Amino acid sequence: MPGTVLLLAASPVGKGCLVDAASVLPVLAAVAPPVLSGTDTANVVELADPLEPQAVLTRLRAAATASGPLTMFVTGQLQLDRRQRLPHLALARTTPSTVRYTAFPWRWIADELRLRPPGSTTVFVDLHADADTWEFIASRPLTAGPSAELYGRVAPPPGRRAVAQPAYMRAVATLLRSGHRPPPAQLHQQALTRVSGEDTARPGAEDLVLAPGRAWAGQPWPPAPEFTTVTAPPGTAPAPPPRPPVPPAAVPAPPGPPVSPVSTAVPVAPVVSVLPTSSAVPVAAVPVAAVPVAAVPMASVPRGPSVPSPASSGRTEVRVRPAVPDPHGEITAAVRDGRHDDALALAGRCERDALRTHGAGSEQVLHWMEVRADLAMFAGDAERSCRGWLALAATRLDAGQDPGAPEVESAVDRAHHQWGRVQDPGRARELGAELARLRRRVPGRREGALDHVQRQLSQLGTQA
Predict the structure, then answer these.
(1) What is the CATH number of the domain that holds 429?
(2) pLDDT at position 347 over 50
(3) Is residue 446 exposed (0-12), middle (13-18) or buried (19+ Cβ within 10 Å)?
(4) Which of 26, 106, 109, 40 is closest to 72 using CA atoms?
(5) How many folded domains does the chain comprise?
(6) Can you give the pLDDT at residue 387?
(7) pTM for this predicted structure
(8) Of 160, 193, 210, at which residue does a domain stop?
(9) 154 CA to centre of own chain
(10) Last residue of a domain, one of 210, 236, 269
(11) How far apart are CA 366 and CA 372, in angstroms?
(12) CA atoms of 332 and 334, how far apart (whole Å)
């Protein structure tokens, strides 16, 4: 099965640049595509200093919906937007005051990759952060989602008026140019070893190392085992199995990867905004979902009660019962087989189960509402998808969430986008009236969204 490789290097132009990100692309481009991806054949997409976050999202979404293995190499710098204090990948036009509109939100990477099956996605990153962002990520997670393996480093800002070099990514590229691609974990360690021996420009600097076992700002975070054996001396009480630490203020990703329905046999077209160019709302830049549904990191969720066996022989075995099967895999298979009704029915049952267990307005229920709206879109049912996103936005607002919250804006923007694809004039007028009411409360990031809805409704009225 062919693989997909996405090479992304981005940094601002001018004095705000912290790292010469694009300098590593020629070295990566010199590596044979099969070596970059670890497959017999591969398609390579290169983005050098992109200008618009929508362009990055379009390429990322196309790569994420490919059915084969996906490998991403991301080089650049992180900055926080001043309003929501969320990390973004700075693009060519990004300045400290325009991060929210000109940079690429890091969480969109996890949002898009969450659709992929586990074990099929590897992300290598070499990122630099300004002082404000460095302090922020030192106590908060930087991940690529639950279904992707993230390797790399985040480096502190270089010296004043200095531009750093992507030493880690250059080491990765140099190792791959040998023609041999070791397993990702081994490649990561070899690159770190090489960087530690060559990077003398910042003596004593402590990079944050990113890897599956170190997902929390470089701190060890071992996964929970399915089966653990603990040996205790005779006559002593067995110690409980170790639990990984739960970092403070953790906001992990959803518990499992939802659907990944698009095959490489189907051309992936970019999502086109339904709004005029002069006043477009970046609906193409809305992530598939941005709602975490777990309350604690997945690595710290116990798989089931521990049942120790009698310590008659001086050996205590602690068995951990396996987790309940994740329904996302079954949904993925149904969508890939074209059984959209089955996928929607299963997601509906999961939503009803979450409603009984956790109550209306819970993050678990909201997650399944998102999944159902996505599934309707994949099935080509724009009306149902629009209704789903409208309902999700209304539910969040009724729960007291701020109209400017990313999750609320995302739901309304997606409803707006799907509304533009509704063909029946009567249904479009009905949904448009509800969308206009929401747009008065949730105008979105750009001006003109409400005006667009009202103009379209006026045209529909004239047609009627």
Answers:
(1) 1.25.40.10
(2) yes
(3) middle
(4) 109
(5) 2
(6) 94
(7) 0.52
(8) 210
(9) 17
(10) 210
(11) 10
(12) 5
